[in-house]
Each structure stands twice: as C-alpha cells, then as structure tokens.
Write a structure and sequence with these properties.
Largest sheet of chain A: 7 strands, mixed
Order of helices and strands of chain A: EEEEEEEEEEE
Number of strands of chain A: 11
Oligomer: heterodimer
Shape of chain A: globular
Radius of gyration of chain A: 13 Å
Number of helices of chain A: 0
Largest sheet of chain B: 6 strands, mixed
Structural class of chain B: mainly beta
Structural class of chain A: mainly beta
Order of helices and strands of chain B: EEEEEEEEEEE
Shape of chain B: globular
Largest interface: A-B, 23 and 24 residues
Helix content of chain A: under 10%
Number of strands of chain B: 11
Chain lengths: 113, 110
C-alpha cells in the first residue's frame, strides 16, 4: 500500500517568507508526527497529532512554527518568517496508534537563503 | 550528554562482512528500541522494533538489547553494497516520543 507522502520534496525560500509543508499519512493511521533533521543532528521531535488534536506540541522551536491536521488525515506544518536556522529536512511519520511503530515519509528539504 | 549516543562513522567494511552497529542510551525508562535505515536524501525506513532485552532476528539483521548496560546493537550478516546507508537507533519508554541517535554512516565496499 501507499506509504507516507510529503510535499514538496524540496523547498527553497528567502529569509522572512512563510512556508507550508504537507504530509499525507498512511491511510487509517490515527497518529501523526513531525520531526526535524539537521545536518549532523538526530531527528528532533516537533509535534504529535492523535486524530485532529495535537496533545504534544512541546518540540516546536518557536511560535513561528505551527501545524494542523484536518479530517484525521493530511497535516500541514507552517513556518512563518523563516530564518536560516530553519534550514533542515522536515520529516513526517505516522502510526496506527501512538504506541506503535512509526513509518516515515521521504521528507521535505527546506533551504532558507 | 545526549540520551542516545551513536558513533557517526563512517564505518567501511568489505562486502560479505558482518557489521556491528551500536548505540548507548542513558534513560532507564526506555523499553522499546528501534533501528531505522536511511538512504541519502530519503526518509528513515524501519528495520527492527524490539521490546526490552534480548535478541530479535529478521533475515540478515539481528537486533540485540542489553538493558543492564544500556547498550543496543544491530548486526548485519553477509553485508551488501546496498546496505550502505545511515543507521539510526532510537528508544522510547513506550510512548510516541522516540529519542534518536545521530546515526552511523555505513559503507559496504564491493
């Protein structure tokens, strides 16, 4: 079956612009996660969704970052007023339930000039 | 100190060798341990998902967890050039919040 998909695969933007990153989880997966992977760093947890609710937003680095999920499916991560330090690969994962194995998408590579 | 530590490598081995990849962790609450394989410019792919101490085998891959020493390992038998990738270990206490190591880059030379 189809895995987790993310779009765009690459995004280049100028400092100060807003960007939206999209994630389509595996069908039927109720839990969805966003991570950030910077060069030389491990995956950094950003936010967890159960259905359309986000009980844990503790990893969002600043109030410039927000995310939403609609219809228990697609999620969008929005970064406002991007900064150069936001450059990273943003990965989305989903699982059947919050305690089950997480399956990752291919990621969106964000470059802020 | 990071909660999960991995040697970044690169680790270079000849084709056919047995590869040992290792992680240490500091959180005693960790109960579940994962190994992911990540090819360049791709997302992590789940290889092994294990609970508590012991061994788990899947084809050429064996995951080993020693909770007493907080040490986890992934063994790859008969390594192939296609195994060349970055291997990420992760642990969790049983919640959704996985804590990842920074990954070990493996190169299998033909």
């Amino acid at each position: 079956g189809a895995g987790v998909s993310q779009s765009p695969s690459n995004k280049v933007t100028e400092k100060g612009k807003d960007v939206e990153l999209r994630c389509d989880p595996i069908s039927g997966h109720t839990a969805l996660y966003w991570y950030r992977q910077s060069l030389g760093q491990g995956l950094e947890f950003l936010i967890y969704f159960q259905g359309n609710s986000a009980p844990d937003k503790s990893g969002l680095p600043s109030d410039r970052f927000s995310a939403e999920r609609t219809g228990g499916s697609v999620s969008t991560l929005t970064i406002q007023r991007t900064q150069q330090e936001d450059s990273a690969v943003y990965l989305c994962a989903s699982s059947t339930y919050s305690q089950n194995e997480q399956f990752f998408g291919p990621g969106t590579r964000l470059t802020v000039l | 100190q990071k909660e999960v530590e991995q040697d970044p490598g690169p680790l270079s081995v000849p084709e056919g060798a047995i590869v040992s990849l290792n992680c240490t962790y500091s959180n005693s609450a960790f109960q579940y341990f994962m190994w992911y394989r990540q090819y360049s410019r791709k997302g992590p792919e789940l290889l092994m998902y294990t609970y508590s101490s012991g061994n788990k085998e899947d084809g050429r891959f064996t995951a080993q967890v020693d909770k007493s020493s907080k040490y986890i390992s992934l063994f790859i038998r008969d390594s192939q050039p296609s195994d060349s990738a970055t291997y990420l270990c992760a642990g969790t206490s049983g919640t959704y919040k996985y804590i990842f190591g920074t990954g070990t880059r493996l190169k299998v030379l033909a």
